[in-house]
Amino acid sequence: MSIDNEIIYRCKRGFLELDLLLNRFEMATLTNMTLNDKLELLRLLEIDDNTLLKLLTKNKKCPSNDMKYLLKLIKEYSNYKSKKKV
């Protein structure tokens, strides 16, 4: 399985909120991501659903600077898309 396919597969989560956040982000940015970004995203997607949702919505602290960057991008993209719809 290619790394892109692995990311697409792992973005399908158990929570609707995560599905919406991750799938929109993945569809819009995957082709422009570097290999290192993709590998870091795969690491981020290993986090369990509850913790990942808290990291994305409740500003829970993340220990990894690389993951902080990805979380920030996901949040910013989500905020941009939701503002654009209004």
Task: Tell me what you see in this structure.
It is built from five helices and no strands. The chain is mainly alpha-helical and 86 residues long. The protein has helices at residues 3-10, 16-29, 35-44, 49-57, 65-85. The chain has a single domain (3-85), classed as Orthogonal Bundle (DNA polymerase, domain 1). Helix 2 (16-29) packs across helix 5 (65-85). It is globular and about 30 Å long.
Provide a short characterization of the protein structure.
With about 90 residues, the chain is an all-alpha fold.
Offer a few descriptive terms:
86 residues; mainly alpha; 5 helices; globular
Rg (C-alpha, Å): 12 Å
User: Number of folding domains?
Assistant: 1
Number of strands: 0
Q: What is the name of the CATH class?
A: Mainly Alpha
What CATH architecture do you see?
A: Orthogonal Bundle
- How does the major sheet shape up? none
Range of helix content = over 70%
Residue stretches low in confidence (pLDDT < 50, at least 5 long) are none
What's the rounded overall pLDDT mean? 84
Order of helices and strands: HHHHH
Per CATH, the superfamily is Flavinator of succinate dehydrogenase
**Derived structural class:** mainly alpha
The CATH topology label is DNA polymerase, domain 1
Annotation field: number of helices: 5
What characteristic shape results from the CA principal axes? globular
Beta-strand percentage range: under 5%
End-to-end gap: 38 Å
